[in-house]
């Protein structure tokens, strides 16, 4: 049994690292291409891997999970994120970086934010689903393991976001682990992203 657990841990560690490295080495031109690249590597590819080894994606966060905990965690973390969003959106380094797309109208802005939802789903499925639940034999240490590369891939964005993303990764990992679903972190990540983009536009 110990060998089987170790083999499972090593498999998901290797698979996750390989996906991250390949994904990061693929250069894109434009934000839209970046979104589809992330969807391929962080959503489609992990799903294919799970199906190839005959694992149920629902055991890796693609389920509704505990709805009561979903509501509780969403409200708590959303309220905790509000002051950070207000402070960040008032800083020039964030105003110059967000939103990451160009838009011509309010409708165009909404269209882009819907596409950002695809990006957030892909990110949450890979880090909080494929990695966190894939490494469940590590216990809650898997939450820490996935938070490290999640923070590192933010390098290139405003530096304070790299630090913030590490703690956000821990929080997202915990709420998904406890609710047995990536839905809490996905909804929270996407919602706060839309609000933050809007604040950066309004306050710039």
Write up what this structure looks like:
The chain has one domain (2-203). Helix content is 76%, strand content 0%. It contains eight helices and no strands. The longest helix is centred in the middle third of the chain and has 29 residues, at 106-134. The mean pLDDT is 95.
Strand content: under 5%
Low-confidence stretches: none
DSSP summary: helix tally: 8
The profile of the biggest β sheet is: none
Please, how many domains? 1
| Average pLDDT level | 95
What structural class do you assign from the helix and strand content?
mainly alpha
Q: What is the C-alpha radius of gyration, as a whole number of Å?
A: 17 Å
What gap, in angstroms, lies between the N and C termini? 57 Å
Shape: globular
Helix and strand run: HHHHHHHH
Record keyword descriptors for this entry:
204 residues; mainly alpha; 8 helices; 0% strand
What does this entry show, briefly?
The chain is mainly alpha-helical and 204 residues long. The chain is built from eight helices and no strands. The chain has one domain.
Itemize the secondary structure elements and their pairings:
Layout: H1 2-25, H2 31-52, H3 67-89, H4 92-95, H5 106-134, H6 141-152, H7 159-179, H8 183-203
Helix pairs in contact: 1-2, 1-5, 2-5, 3-7, 3-8, 5-6, 5-7, 5-8, 6-7
């Amino acid at each position: 049994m110990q060998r089987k657990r170790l083999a499972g841990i090593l498999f998901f560690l290797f698979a996750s690292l390989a996906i991250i490295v390949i994904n990061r080495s693929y250069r894109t031109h434009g934000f839209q291409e970046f979104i589809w690249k992330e969807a391929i590597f962080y959503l489609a590819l992990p799903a294919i891997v799970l199906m190839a080894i005959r694992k149920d994606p629902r055991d890796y966060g693609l389920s509704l999970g505990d709805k009561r905990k979903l509501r509780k965690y969403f409200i708590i973390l959303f309220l905790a994120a509000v002051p950070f969003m207000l402070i960040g959106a008032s800083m020039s380094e964030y105003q110059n970086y967000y939103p990451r797309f160009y838009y011509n109208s309010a409708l165009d802005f909404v269209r882009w934010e819907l596409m950002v939802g695809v990006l957030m789903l892909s990110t949450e499925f890979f880090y909080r689903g494929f990695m966190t639940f894939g490494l469940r034999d590590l216990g809650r240490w898997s939450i820490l393991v996935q938070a490290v590369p999640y923070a590192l891939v933010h390098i290139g964005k405003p530096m304070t976001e790299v630090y913030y993303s590490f703690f956000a990764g821990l929080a997202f990992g915990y709420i998904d682990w406890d609710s047995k679903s990536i839905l809490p972190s996905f909804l929270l990540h996407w919602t706060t992203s839309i609000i933050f983009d809007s604040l950066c536009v309004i306050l710039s």
